[in-house]
Amino acid sequence: MGSDIKIKICGLTDPADIPAAILAGASYVGFVFFPKSPRHLELEAAAFMAASVPVGIMKVALTVDADDAMLDTLTGQVPLDMLQLHGSESPERVAGVKSRYGLPVMKAVGIADAGDLPQLETYGRVADQLLVDAKPPRGADRPGGNAVAFDWTLIAGRRWPVPWMLAGGLTPENVAQAVRLTGARQVDVSSGVESAPGVKDADMMRAFVEAAQSGAA
Ligand SMILES: O=C(O)c1ccccc1N[C@@H]1O[C@H](COP(=O)(O)O)[C@@H](O)[C@H]1O
Question: Does the keyword Isomerase belong to this entry (predicted)?
Fold first, then answer.
């Protein structure tokens, strides 16, 4: 098996993060549109950053229970390749967003225990990709980006009908083990490559990609 793992680096906030993430080896870059997040971007800043992303690198917009008005504005102003729905969007809403915007949709599903796994089957029937993330801790003010991992053995050896990404508390130190254990061929990271909330670190991004590739080799 080769080390053809794909990496998404999410929550870029500085224009310099784009070349740093791509040089590190990211295949996807993510922009967060959620005001409570330290990674939240205004549309103008996101449009500026997205315009600098080379063709072939996926530009992903992360939203949380966004309505059509918000998504109309977002997709009208920012060039995007994928929408990541990270709230409690229903399967019907996922299907509606897909057809309204004509962009691939990745649905995040929070996992805490085995009881959460059937959601992956459900959303796997409507989304283009699944993001298998940790459930937020009790009292968290955002549904992701909390640097929390879940018990990876819950999904070891499991497969779904669409491509999926592993997320939640991944770091340069743990991603190789996470990849080996789950068999993930795509991983997503935000907090684990930051020197402070919302501040990406180029060395950490490089170390993360190298470690993910070593786990997939
Ligand atoms: O990053 C955020 O602030 C965020 C806000 C709201 C929803 C999701 C968010 N981040 C996503 O959560 C996962 C895991 O992040 P982490 O690596 O544990 O920090 C990832 O998909 C982020 O894109």
Answer: yes
Question: Is any ligand 1 atom within 6 A of the Cβ of residue 186?
Answer: no
Quote the pTM value. 0.96
* Residues that are catalytic: 10, 133
Q: Which of 7, 32, 132, 190 to mutate to test the pocket of ligand 1 (most atoms within 8 A of CB)?
A: 190
Q: What is the pLDDT of residues 58-69, one digit of tens each?
A: 999 999 999 999
pLDDT per residue over 72-125, tens digit each? 999 999 999 999 999 999 999 999 999 999 999 999 999 999 999 999 999 999
CATH number assigned to the domain comprising residue 185:
3.20.20.70
Position 1 in a domain:
no
Measured CA to CA, the distance from residue 143 to residue 119 in angstroms comes to 16
Number of H helices, E strands in the chain: 7, 10
- Report the C-alpha gap between 89 and 64 in whole angstroms: 8
Range of the domain at 122: 6-216
Helix (H, G, I), strand (E, B) or coil at 175: helix
Task: Please choose, from the candidates 195, 174, 203, 217, the residue with its C-alpha nearest in 3D space to the C-alpha of residue 21.
Answer: 203
Ligand 1 mean position, distance from CA 142 (Å): 8
How many structural domains does the chain have? 1
CA nearest ligand 1 atom 1, residue? 145
From CA 9, how far away is CA 193, in angstroms rounded? Answer: 8
